[in-house]
Write a structure and sequence with these properties.
This protein is an alpha+beta fold. It is built from two helices and six strands. The longest helix is centred in the middle third of the chain and has 12 residues, at about 70-80.
Amino acid sequence: MRFIKEHSLIEQAHIADINKKEVIVYTREGGNIPHIHILNPQDNTFECCVRLDKAEYFCHGNKQNTLNTKDKKEFVACMHKSTKTRVGHFTNWEIAVLIWNQGNPQAQIPDEIKMPNYLQLK
């Protein structure tokens, strides 16, 4: 089968759930700005993007929503949650960074970076 340049797959990885929203990494979109998507897949009424490298939203396309104070707190708790893997324990944020870095060699997040304070999202 031949590869057709005009058609590409957007790879995605489900990181976690926050209430009725999902946290997803799309590794090959968004102009090389490291970010995750938080969305409501049931009815597509909510979608926002949050940068992985700083406490900022990354608004692109129709992904313009923001988190309220309660959602920010739940998002922070979710991203701090540790998950056991075959090679050790990682937070959901660390897993998102690993997945981003694996799919985006041109826009790597440094290994020494710490999770931003997402309570200060702006």
